[in-house]
Amino acid sequence: MNLPNALTLSRIFIVPLLVVVLLTKLPSEWVGVPQQLLGLTIFIGASITDWLDGFIARRRGQVSTLGILLDPIADKLLISAALVSLVENKLAPAWAIVIIIGREFAVSGLRSIAAAEGFTISASKKAKLKMLSQVVAITLLILGSVPGGPSGLQPPPRVRPDVSFASFQEASAVIASTLRDRTIDAEGFRVLCYGLGRFMLWIVVVFALLSMYDYFTKFYGKVRDRIEVRERRRIRLLKKRKRRTATAVQRNSV
Predict the structure, then answer these.
(1) Which of 82, 89, 93 is closest to 131 using CA atoms?
(2) What's this model's pTM, rounded to 2 decimal places?
(3) What does the pLDDT read at residue 249?
(4) Which conformational region is residue 90 in: left (phi greater than 0), alpha (psi within -120 to 50 degrees), or beta?
(5) For residue range 185-208, what is the model confidence (pLDDT) as tens digits?
(6) Which of 39, 86, 163, 192 has the fewest beta carbons closer than 10 A?
(7) Cβ count within 10 A of residue 195
(8) CA quadruple 232, 233, 238, 240: dihedral positive or negative?
């Protein structure tokens, strides 16, 4: 097994550890590190391997079929595990996560059908921006969390996650006070990160829907082209059969 594939597999094996750290009530400082920082370190480390395995594979010419298969699976497992953990900790709204993960299933289905038909659908720039915005949103939400929730982490005490746009209002207040006083305390920093993270989730949803539309249009275009090619072949075959039939009839009449 080459190094890029080993990095991809390590990202898959890290997922259970990330879920345990994010969804377990740990002591205030487990192994000397706050719970949210430990979870964030694991998540960022796994996210870096997503870029690193592709970079090494292209640079060393080690792009393999196994790597092409495992890389998107590892990405989806990592992001889905982190997002579901955030929902369980009431750090993210369930409706947004359903859209994001549902989009992944839809795109995976399209890619499977495309592979069966013998063509591929390349990732668009919007899909790459979606991945980047997901990492940023998850990072900010974990940074803005505090230990002590029923499932491990929880939102900052000043924020009511059940109230629409409450996190944005609190974050705006923190920004205003920071600009006024030119200082920010630890609680204000967490509120700011949490509010920005919730805002980034809206950006992720937008990129998820736009990139899914791109995949559908590319898929439709490829399928339409193949249908047209098959139809032209069918028409040519019919014309050949008609000519052969006409020739045979002429010979028989003679």
Answers:
(1) 82
(2) 0.82
(3) 63
(4) left
(5) 788 888 888 888 888 998 999 999
(6) 163
(7) 26
(8) positive
- Residue 243 burial by Cβ neighbours in a 10 Å radius (0-12, 13-18, 19+): exposed
The pLDDT value recorded for residue 172 is 75
Q: What is the CA radius of gyration of the chain?
A: 26
Provide the pairing of β-strand 29-30 with 152-154: unpaired
Q: Say how far apart CA 50 and CA 46 lie, in whole Å.
A: 7
Count other C-beta atoms under 10 Å from residue 147's C-beta.
Answer: 16
The domain in which residue 116 lies consists of 3-253
Q: Quick one: which of 175, 82, 76 has its CA closest to 123?
A: 76
pLDDT given at position 162: 56
Q: What is the mean pLDDT of the chain?
A: 82
- d(C-alpha 100, C-alpha 206), whole Å: 9
What is the Cα–Cα distance from 180 to 182, expressed in whole angstroms? 6
- How open is the CA angle 161-167-173, to the nearest 5 degrees? 145
Q: Which residues of the chain have pLDDT under 50?
A: none
Confirm if 166 and 130 have CB atoms less than 8 A apart. Answer: no
Could you give the CA distance from residue 22 to residue 146 in angstroms, rounded to a whole number?
Answer: 11
Domain harbouring 118, CATH code: 1.20.120.1760
Token pair of 61, please?
């010419």
Total structural domains within the chain: 1
- Predicted local distance difference test score (pLDDT) of residue 114: 80
